[in-house]
Amino acid sequence: MPDFPTYGPEEIEALDGVAGAVLGVFKAHGYVRHEPAILQKAQIFVDRSGEEIRRRTYELSDPSGRELCLRPDLTIPTCKWQVESGGAYPARLCYHGPAFRHQPGAGQFWQAGAELLGLGDRAAGDAEMLALAVEAVRAGGVEDFSMIVGDLGLFATLVDALEVPAQWRGRLKRHFWRSGYFEALLARMVAGEANDAQRAADTLHGLKLMDLKPAIEALIDKEGEAPLGGRTRDEIVERLTIQASDGTAPRLSPEVAELITSFLKVSGPGEEALETIRTLTKPVAARMVKPLAAMAERLRSLKALGIPPEKVRFVAHFGRSLEYYTGFVFELWTRAGEVAGGGRYDTLLESLGAPRGTTAIGCAIRTQRLLTARAI
Amino acid sequence: MSEPVTLAIPSKGRLKEQVDGYFAKAGVALKQTAGARGYRATVEGHPGIDVMLLSSSEIAAALAGGDVHLGVTGEDLIREAAPELEGRVALLKSLGFGFADVVVAVPKSWIDVSTMADFDDICAAYAQHHKKRLRVATKYTQLTRGFFAHAGISDYRIVPSAGATEGAPTAGTAEAIVDITTTGSTLKANGLKVLDDGVILKSQAQLAMSLAAEWSAAQRTAAASFLAPLGVSLSE
Questions:
Q1: Does the ipTM surpass 0.90?
Q2: CB within 8 A of A32, min separation 6: which ones?
Q3: Chain B contact for A166 (CB, 8 A cutoff)
Q4: Which CATH superfamily does the domain covering A9-157+265-375 fall into?
Q5: CB of B162 less than 8 A from some CB of A
């Protein structure tokens, strides 16, 4: 594929055919088509996408100096449209069109997608989206694919259940998918940190909760006329309060670090992998029951869709670097590469102004890739 | 006579004086042409070297783009113009002047922040509280991106800054900055502190070679004989 391809009559017809088949599936399940603009304001993507997407976004400015971009994905503008148009929930929206990312080969590619927004029953939403993606790929002419599934919520639950200093939970959850960096982070936590900020927290340790706030504010005032940037004093107070409650010189126990490391190494055929995780997480079994049952349920629904269990791999560290994902994630792979992927992103709509707790799950189908996969 | 080798040196400021001093000490005499305000010079005894006087950042861009063969400028500017150097620029010699550190600095009043790991926590918390990303003002966009990615930080936004970056947190146009510092006094005066592990680059003036430029055999010979008295040899 050249970097700046021109599609001839056969190629366009084939692409239209696949797109029509995929959109037909979406429509049959009640998804309404709409089409966000290709040219978008950059800000909305900069503020919400992961670094992987941001690094690969084509940014430009118009003659008046406004920062624009070619849409690197259609999920964010679709969600924004839903929030701003004030439409009812649950909403089922779909689309097909070009998206743009800086990558080897052509920076423009075609994708179809579906978004299920504001359905309160998460299990039902997961099952619906999985079935939709599988059916769409099959309608696009590809029967032979394998799958990777994961769940960011599973790791988050584990970290909350284990004995981890409260101030470090966020760090672990944010970085678990960064191999190399994450191992170094764990090692640092086991060794314990000693720095000025920790010493500030140490001086506060032992104070009663009601004395903490004035003590912290006095420490801030000692710095004189220093600016705060956009951070409020309360944000500083809140973070130091959590740190003070962890006691002096917090450390992660080597056993907990070992459990986390072993958990993230789990990768294999779905049911086997879940069994390994059940054994590993026995010390906190009570907390893990619900999310593990939810994953088992998804595996069962895949079996019911006629996908052989040996073709479904559960990967514990599978998180996708599009940072807005929050829970269940999945990808469909062929020898031509990834043909579809999706997952749950329950915080994006709220960040765009939707009511708190508005759920979302979606999938994207690489229609052009489906054509390649069919040809192999 | 074949095409000359182009050498770019700073056209003004403290760095120009230091570069002039460096060449003079090694017995290399530069002669400005086209009048005192000329932006060209020649080197006595080396007719194959064509000297151009440019601004420090233009020199970095010209090295990265292959528009000049050799250049003297700050390593910070070179690494900003050619991230990781990427086979585009070779640093031939650290010149022992023009020292400055490129650092991450945050408000002193952030008493809960002293490391990049703290900064990472703050970025994530800020995005959650304020529904937007924490802003980092800098003219070192590339260096900042690379360093932050290495530190695992992604919840931030770069605000390009043309000058007086250290005033951005006070002015309310950014929460933190990445900037150059020599003594740290300007940062302190603006109520900022450098993070313990927030030194991105310890920079000094470099004599550098552009690998992106076209080098003929004759040009290599001319450059090698010019550099020999300085105790510098060309990169392969």
A1: no
A2: A92, A93, A94
A3: no
A4: Bira Bifunctional Protein; Domain 2 (3.30.930.10)
A5: no
